[in-house]
TrEMBL record:
<feature type="domain" description="ABC transmembrane type-1">
    <location>
        <begin position="31"/>
        <end position="308"/>
    </location>
</feature>
<feature type="transmembrane region" description="Helical">
    <location>
        <begin position="167"/>
        <end position="185"/>
    </location>
</feature>
<keyword id="KW-1133">Transmembrane helix</keyword>
<keyword id="KW-0067">ATP-binding</keyword>
<dbReference type="GO" id="GO:0005886">
    <property type="term" value="C:plasma membrane"/>
</dbReference>
<feature type="transmembrane region" description="Helical">
    <location>
        <begin position="285"/>
        <end position="306"/>
    </location>
</feature>
<keyword id="KW-0472">Membrane</keyword>
<dbReference type="InterPro" id="IPR027417">
    <property type="entry name" value="P-loop_NTPase"/>
</dbReference>
<dbReference type="GO" id="GO:0005524">
    <property type="term" value="F:ATP binding"/>
</dbReference>
<dbReference type="GO" id="GO:0015421">
    <property type="term" value="F:ABC-type oligopeptide transporter activity"/>
</dbReference>
<protein>
    <submittedName>
        <fullName>ABC transporter ATP-binding protein</fullName>
    </submittedName>
</protein>
<dbReference type="GO" id="GO:0016887">
    <property type="term" value="F:ATP hydrolysis activity"/>
</dbReference>
<feature type="domain" description="ABC transporter">
    <location>
        <begin position="339"/>
        <end position="559"/>
    </location>
</feature>
<feature type="transmembrane region" description="Helical">
    <location>
        <begin position="254"/>
        <end position="273"/>
    </location>
</feature>
<dbReference type="Pfam" id="PF00664">
    <property type="entry name" value="ABC_membrane"/>
</dbReference>
<dbReference type="InterPro" id="IPR003593">
    <property type="entry name" value="AAA+_ATPase"/>
</dbReference>
<feature type="transmembrane region" description="Helical">
    <location>
        <begin position="28"/>
        <end position="48"/>
    </location>
</feature>
Length: 559
């Protein structure tokens, strides 16, 4: 399929995904061998049965044949089980590799791209779309290969047994294929629409469950239900379209089998009466006919699921094409001594957000960024963390371009406290130690908790660092969450501490103690803090005022 310009883009995309994540050729070889053994043994059974039937009248039971038959049946069952297990193992390996690579891609995707995506939709894609791609390999491919081998082998064996009955059967199969093929092809659009509808539903429902309080407070329960109903109806509509096709494929396959059976019985009766056919041949033929049911259905399912997997691959390939954040240059930043923004300009979605920013941060001190809401304060401090590759060339770290350094080593010297501190649904300890490679002792953790004034909160939760932070974060008040985020930042022992409105939810006492902590720290590290609150500024602070993305004022003293 590779390099085939005529292949549909969806199928080419599926091939690309599978060729990267499929198991190695040895696994395929083992799988094919298992298929050949399982299918081959199933083909031998009717021949044994024929022999048994044709010899009963003359010689009584042939016990050697019966024993051979039992042996073949048992081995066939074992190899079929082994094949199912091996196929599932191959599929799950592919699923693991595919999902891991997608998560890796998203973790490394440029922040500017992720800003426009919905987290729940991305999660839905990783879960559902990769499952579709997996099942084509784990179940459908085995069905296809064993189906094709069975079909060819059965037809050859049947032909050798009796060419006339085989022609009758082939005519029936041709009629069935004519009806089933257009049905299987119609799954193409259905599968994609179904997966889109499921992803929309998943995204909406997860957002609603997260915002339960807001929905109640706004009396929005009914509108949530209405919208959910709409999305559910959409999903139901596509699921029913799929069910209609599947419910036609199965009975049509059965109908073809029944037609074939009736035709074969009728012709057999005629040829037995003429003496040109034995009862054993008819028995073997009927057994092969039943054996054909599974391969025929498998073939139908393969082509319909192939369309589904191809649709899923389109979406997964979109993720695979997201541009990754650069890992930076070769230099490792051991100690950050200065960072300077030089004529920095930042645009997003065609909007100029920061312009002509010239600012320097030395090894120690406190810089306060002031400005009205929307003036670009948060965007400015986020530049320091290298979230946006396009501005990194205007940032000098220790007087060298930011891009010369390994990105992780620069970030390793920094800590960031976001405007809305985010906590994971994990233990307090895991939240505190986020990203740390050297694990601090419990004493160090306690010291940070005490420094940010969280000791009484810590006693309230019985000093249990392993308690789980729920998604709704009920363990924390708004102010406690802010102080917790500051403790997490301090544990990183940063050279540059960047805080976005760190005291907006704090009372006067806590605000004063956090400011005194930050001032104390600014003797050894540089603290950059965004705030609205001019009361927090002390005469010795370096104050930068932003207006519409431009620095309108910088001063060392505030009146
Ligand atoms: N990635 C982005 N894409 C599009 N617009 C953006 C992006 N980042 C910031 N903006 C816009 O830039 C403007 C400045 O945002 P920013 O969050 O930096 O302001 P702020 O001064 O921190 O405001 P506040 O004090 O209210 O938090 C806003 O209008 C925001 O919508």
């Amino acid at each position: 399929m590779k390099g085939n310009d005529n292949a549909s883009p969806e199928l080419t995309g599926l091939w690309q995904l599978l060729s990267t994540h499929k198991p190695n050729n040895k696994s395929f070889l083992y799988m094919t061998l298992l298929i050949i053994v399982a299918t081959g043994l199933e083909l031998v059974i009717p021949l044994y049965s024929r022999h048994l039937v044709d010899n009963i009248n003359q010689l009584g039971f042939d016990y050697v044949v019966i024993l051979g038959l039992v042996f073949v049946v048992v081995i066939a069952a074992i190899s079929e089980g082994a094949l199912a297990w091996y196929g599932a193992r191959m599929g799950e390996h592919t699923n693991l590799s595919l999902r891991y690579s997608l998560i890796g891609r998203l973790v490394n995707t440029k922040q500017a791209i992720l800003n426009n995506e919905h987290s729940a939709e991305l999660s839905a894609r990783i879960m559902n779309d990769s499952a579709s791609v997996k099942s084509i390999l784990a179940e459908d491919l085995i069905g296809l290969i064993s189906g094709v081998i069975s079909l060819i082998a059965v037809i050859v064996v049947m032909f050798l047994l009796d060419w006339r009955l085989t022609l009758v059967l082939l005519a029936c199969i041709a009629i069935g294929a004519l009806v089933i093929t257009p049905l299987a092809l119609s799954m193409r659009g259905i599968g994609k629409a179904m997966q889109d509808a499921e992803a929309d539903l998943f995204t909406y429902v997860s957002e609603c469950f997260k915002s339960g309080k807001m929905i109640r407070a706004h009396n929005a329960k009914q509108s949530v239900l209405n919208r959910s109903k709409g999305l559910l109806n959409n999903s139901f509509h596509h699921a029913m379209r799929e069910a209609r096709v599947v419910s036609m494929i199965n009975p049509i396959s059965n109908l073809v089998l029944m037609m074939s059976m009736v035709a074969i019985l009728a012709f057999s009766a005629h040829w037995i009466a003429q003496g040109s056919m034995t009862l054993g041949t008819v028995t073997a033929f009927l057994m092969y006919l039943f054996g054909l049911a599974f391969p025929l259905i498998s073939l139908g399912m393969f082509f319909s699921n192939l369309q589904k997997a191809a649709g899923a691959a389109v979406r997964l390939n979109e993720i695979n094409q997201y541009e990754m954040e650069s890992e930076g240059g070769n230099l490792e930043l051991k100690k950050l001594s200065s960072i300077r923004l030089n004529k920095l300009k930042f645009e997003a979605d065609g909007k100029l957000i920061l312009t002509d920013i010239n600012l320097a941060f030395s090894a120690a001190g406190l810089t306060v960024i002031l400005g009205e809401s929307g003036s670009g304060k948060s965007t400015l401090i986020q530049q320091l963390l290298g979230f946006y590759h396009e501005t990194q060339s205007n940032i000098l770290v220790n007087e060298l371009p930011f891009t010369d350094y390994q990105l992780n080593s620069v970030r390793g010297n920094m800590a960031w406290v976001d405007q809305e501190p985010r906590l994971f649904h994990a233990s307090i300890r895991e939240n505190l130690l986020l990203g740390l490679t050297t694990v601090p002792s419990d004493e160090e953790i306690m010291a940070c908790i005490e420094q940010v004034g969280l000791l009484s909160w810590f006693n309230k939760i019985n000093g249990d660092l392993d308690i789980l932070v729920s998604e709704q974060q009920q363990l924390f008040s708004g102010g406690e969450k802010q102080r917790f985020a500051i403790a997490r930042a301090l544990l990183r022992k940063p050279q540059l501490l960047v805080l976005d409105e760190p005291s907006s939810a704090l009372d006067k006492d806590n605000e004063a103690s956090i400011m005194s902590l930050l001032r104390h720290m600014s003797a050894n590290i540089h603290v950059v803090m965004v705030t609205h609150n001019k009361q927090l500024i002390s005469p010795s602070d370096h104050v930068v005022t932003l207006e519409n993305g431009r620095i309108s004022k910088t001063c060392q003293r505030v009146a």
